[in-house]
Amino acid sequence: MTPDDALLEVRDLRAGYGASRVLDGLSFSMGAESVAVVGRNGMGKTTLCDALVGFVRPSGGEVRLAGRRLDGLAPETIAIAGIAYVPQGRRLFPSLTVDEHLSMLARRARGRRWTPDAVYELFPRLAQRRRHGGADLSGGEQQMLAVGRALLLNAPLIVMDEPSEGLAPTIVDVLVDAVHHLVAEGVAVLVVEQNLRAAVRLADRQLVMVSGRIEAEFTGDELLNRPELQRRYLGVGSTAPAGIATGNQHTEGERA
Ligand SMILES: Nc1ncnc2c1ncn2[C@@H]1O[C@H](COP(=O)(O)OP(=O)(O)OP(=O)(O)O)[C@@H](O)[C@H]1O
Q1: pLDDT per residue over 7-55, tens digit each?
Q2: Spatial contact of 205 and 33, defined as CB atoms under 8 Å apart
Q3: Are strands 213-219 and 205-210 parallel, antiparallel or unpaired?
Q4: Which residue is closest in CA terms to ligand 1's atom 31?
Q5: How many CA atoms lie within 13 A of 79 on its CB side?
Q6: Which of 116, 138, 184, 214 has its CA 20 to 30 Å from the CA of residue 125?
Q7: Is 40's C-beta closer than 6 angstroms to any atom of ligand 1?
Q8: Which ligand 1 atom sits nearest the alpha carbon of residue 18?
Q9: Within a 10 A sphere around the Cβ of 109, how many other Cβ atoms?
Q10: Smallest Cα–Cα separation from 193: which of 242, 244, 256?
Q11: Is the CB of 43 under 6 A from ligand 1?
């Protein structure tokens, strides 16, 4: 991909917390496609997401969306400029209903592709639960709501941090279908994943993060079929079932 046709271009990005540098000259670019970032725990994946959306202020480098420089801007400005965020842990409001979560952004979404009704069409399960509070939802329903809320920004790029975390396999299927649907409509999705099986279903391009940089890129098939790559880059042990989880993923089995 040349910078000319990149939707998102990240160049030499640096960021950290106080004196500790976490992102250390990270670069990649992507178009209107899905791309996964995988890597061991603590390599800086969440920090990358937070730096892209403005929750962590970069200390150097550039983030450009469709050519417009976004690094250093406030999170609200970056959201409106076109990067929506589905954060790790979903960050919903326990006392607000599904409807109330979505109606907060409904006015901005009016007349555009993604409205609350369109979100309910994508996730019929959410429509059935529309009057339930955030705290009453299963993990899968919460994740659908977090994705739905991000969609209402009608942004060209959605960043998702560990979307499959804690979800039952059937709900991961719903999520994978939704991401494919979005990409087919021209929305770009950048997804950070600990779960390699989920990562390769969500995206063909797999960027491997090591110590705050993108160290290598593989296709999903390459990563799934080459245990030595999994051991080297993802810390998947030789006794683990091939390609199930990177680092110390803890999940599955939650009620759908
Ligand atoms: N708020 C913070 N203050 C200080 N250090 C932090 C903070 N958040 C993360 N770190 C440190 O930054 C490094 C990268 O963390 P980050 O969460 O970005 O990695 P990650 O690849 O997403 O890991 P994980 O998969 O475990 O969430 C770690 O060493 C972590 O301890």
Answers
A1: 999 999 999 998 899 999 999 999 999 999 999 988 999 999 999 999 9
A2: yes
A3: antiparallel
A4: 42
A5: 16
A6: 184
A7: no
A8: 4
A9: 20
A10: 244
A11: yes
